[in-house]
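Hi R.,

As promised, here are both runs. First protein below:
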Amino acid sequence: MKSFWLATTGLVVAAALSGVAEAAPITGSDSVIVAGVTTSPAVDLLTTVSSGGTVTLSSNFWGSGGTGDFSGLAAFANPIADTNLSFAPGGLGAFSFTSALGNFVGSSSITVGPNTFTSQVLGTTGSAGSGAETVSLYLVGTFTPSGALPGTDPDNMSISLTLNENGIGTTPNQPLGSFGASFTVAAPASAPPPPPPPPPTNVPEPMSVMMLGAGLFGLGAVRRRRS
């Protein structure tokens, strides 16, 4: 009987300890500093997007001034491995990275409760002719913390990424400009910014419609008098 009591007590204690040790999903946000950007094939950003090319982000480092579990990090102290982003015809390729703080595995879409978030190109601006181009992206996936972020579980994550190219040349010797990039991460995933509202349609105002009707009525009356 005594041994049975000890075994039962041990199971209860173990269960209680396992409940205490259970970690919460990682939460917070932070910025990532990107020092190098290249395109493959070596073309301008908008051509890369439209032709299904790849953008490589190199010399990446976690920023500082993050929130939640990412707060208190020192800039440039935790490098991120080079990352590749492919603009495949069927959608964005998986954007993944490995770092001292944890690993991000991108996905085409994730479902969080009743919401489904989808990796997508939010917008493009500029042109090669104007000498500047910008591409805004929204990426989703799962982040698994490690290293300097112990005691937290994986969580869904969203990434807001901006790619820039300035000083695009117009001669064969200098077809490309200087590239830049930056992105921020958020866990749990936050929804992308809403798309811009559609341009207003040329619907006549009520007063304009009334004036047009009155004018047509007057024109008809004049014609009847002349006849």
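And here is the second one, sequence first, then its structure tokens:
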Amino acid sequence: MRCNRHGLAAGPDGECVVCLREARDLATRRARRLALGACVSLFGISGALLAARLLREPIAAQAVTSLAAEPPIAAAPVATQAASETPPSEVATLNAAPSAAPSLPPPAAASAEAVAVASAQPVTPPRQPTSAEVQAAYHATPVLMFSTSWCPVCARARQFFHANGLKFEDRDVDADPQASAELKRRSGGKGIPLIDIDGQQLRPGFSEQATMQAVAASVERRLGVSGIRLVPATVPN
């Protein structure tokens, strides 16, 4: 028996060697096309799922700068406390009990129209300041204190400022009528000392922790960073 197409000897099914080879090649090409189509479909489905996830959960770009810097002052670490846990300040009075410190206005509420824009673009973190820059900002922090010469709490505050290398302006309310009037205008009473650190007025009296927290906040504002931690040198009671 011979093949009708090629004139070669054929088997019982009427196909010769050439027919069988062509059939095998055709089956191989079909299998390859099916495998390629399956891969393309799989990649398409994966891309669609990834795009849907990105649209549903946008990546928020964040720039976080953490800096721990300590001024060159030897002291034991001070445990961080929440504002509500800050120990009460030591307060002296001028001929009367100190009145309650004026309450600070609450922070302005965020606008209801404010919209946080999420960006998938990488954000370059800001440059971290050097130790010398932190030291310079620390020692340049302006400190103003209203006090008297006989007040023991005022004397303790002076010792603390000197021990920690903080320059401060000391205004004696007994010797300076303008300082006395300014004290009354600021606090509404006669509690001393009254300390102002770079525009941030503390409660009447003196607290090492509150003072160093205000100094750290001033350094952070000047350097445009966050996470500054200061370890103060304490003075004996």
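A quick note on the second one: The radius of gyration is 38 Å. Let me know what you think.

Best,
J.
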